[in-house]
Design a protein that fits this description.
Blueprint (H helix, E strand, L loop, with lengths): L10 H14 L11 H10 L5 H4 L8 H10 L4 H26 L4 H12 L10 H27 L4 H16 L10 H12 L5 H31 L18 H16 L5 H6 L6 H23 L8 H24 L18 H15 L3 H43 L7 E5 L9 H12 L10 E5 H4 L13 E6 L2 E6 L3 E5 L7 E3 L5 H4 L5 H4 L30 H13 L3 H13 L11 H9 L3 H14 L4 H14 L5 H12 L5
Parallel strand pairs: 1-2, 1-5
Antiparallel strand pairs: 3-4, 5-6
Amino acid sequence: MKANHSSERSFPLLFLIVTIVAYGLLLPLTGFYWDDLPFAWIAQFLGSWEFIPAFSQVRPFLGPIFFVTTSLIPPVPLYWQIFAILIRCLSGLATWFALNQIWPHHRRQTLIASLLFLVFPGYSQHWVAFTHINQEWIPFIFYLLSFGFTARALRNPDKFVSNTLYALLLLIAGVFPTEYFVSIEPMRFLFIWVMISEQVNGLGQRFIESLKRWLPYLFIWLANGAWLAYFYTIGGYDSLYDVEVIKEPLTLLRILSTMGEALWKAGVYVWVQVLVLASKALTAPTTLLTFGLIAIAFILIVFYLKRLNLSETETRIFAISAIVIGLAGILLGRIPSFAAGLPLTLQSSYDRFMVSMMLGGSLFVTGLIELFIRNPRIKTYAFALLIALGIGQQFFNANIFRRDWAKQQEIYWQLAWRIPAMRPNTALLTDQMPIDYETDLSFTAPLNWMYAPNYERSNLPYALFYTEKRLGGVSLPSLEPNTEISLPVRRVSFQGSTSQALTIYMPQNGCLRVLDPGRGDEITYGRQSRFLVDAIPLSDLSNIIVDADRTARLPFLSEPEHTWCYYFAKAELHHQQGDWDRVIGLIDEARALGYEPEDPFEWLTYIEAQALTGNIEAAEKVSNSAFKQDNGVRKGLCEVWKRVQSKNSAQGEAETRINQVLANFQCTR
């Protein structure tokens, strides 16, 4: 039996199910990302109230939102990912509410546009939950509701004043906290135009009547613009990030190019992006699961849409209106990021700027299909396919963030195993971590969480510096000894020196290691980035407390199964102490369990321990195997065998064999 008009009661459940399928299937496997980590650390150690002064010089109206949410939700990744599901569902429902008030006779189309908004595939940053819930999504929900109450005010004259008041208050709550939505207010004028056009004839009269009804909102919008102009110039704005308003001349070609890019990406390309991305690895498990989910979602959405029996009027006028407003929404939404000189790069942290373009993009594609596909069945299939592709894209994105969180956990645990504790005021130096979404500032927060669990407000005791990014700047002027270095995390900062540092290296496929100039690591890792190699002489392993009572850890992470990197980290720790028998025992235990390194450089510790305990033959055998695996390890082998030679007091066959190994690896060069 077909559903009747009362089937709208199922829409909230529909939105919740679509949200969970698109964003929640991998929920337990996702965590904190990017700025989530500093924000979570602030909430844990400085308290929710800290967000009020912390944002006072950046986004002063955003602090109260952080205060409320962090007062309710503990800084635990799973809790914030669950909250993100609820917020995204509410954003979809808010969109449906708004569009349904604007186009009450096109309920099917407004449902479709709202579902497309919910799974908008151009925005991949959903899982950066702590950050984006507060910075964008809560204000955006207020803004969407404001659109809806504006429409309610116009369609219900008896409640015009109260609904207008609600709309104005929601606009204030939506536009003042963040500049992401500072430019989309003209969309409201277009929505008002659509509603006025139902009753008023003539373009001039429509414009006048629409403008009259938009004036209260225009006043608030201009007030926000005046506030931003004041705040960014003389009002005390002080960002931690190097973001400046564009200074390049605005040529016509540049403007047209930016407009074309925005329209292409937000209006067209993002809807099929998942097919392009997945085609790069067609047989990968993630790809197969993504295609399977798209197929299942398509079938179920077609089934649901076919059972709907929503009354609607002629759709051509709606389609044209949706296309025009959608185009305007895309272009208006691009203005803030364009003005800041920031790119619109998909599948990166920069696609967060799509959040202000996604309403326009969803309306645009809905209008296109309504206008050009007249057959109802084909139209249903087309809409169902787009929604399914959006779901598939978000599942594809979820896997990216799943892998990122898994890599983060590897880094945190390997740090804890290799460095049980550190002397306070120690800086970690590296060129860059093999991870997409986390910066050195991101890692500084969990570093302090791990190694300073009883922190009370003061200078931060630890920090991580990406030398590739920071070298030559205020934070890290140079890599000369005794250079003062600093790194701010909102209102607290790390103040240290290059003379109290550890240099770490995390290869793409391998284990984290602390580099040691005393082991010749400048030569061993000489093929790596100069930003890493130049920092090795500063690495002082005496900053590691090897006999700590407590091993560093993050409270919301469970220790993983001990595989090769655990044994390697512990072997490195014992190598640092000169406990060669324990080094050999750990590596032998790992090998007995079937674990061996992907990176042949990780054999060097074992080779040195074997050679220094007199087992030259075993050390030589492993050396040959490592060299065969990657001849780039030759200089590292030479450094090991030179140290063995310098420490070897034996004469005769052992000395001859050591010299032969050095000759075999051409270590005299």
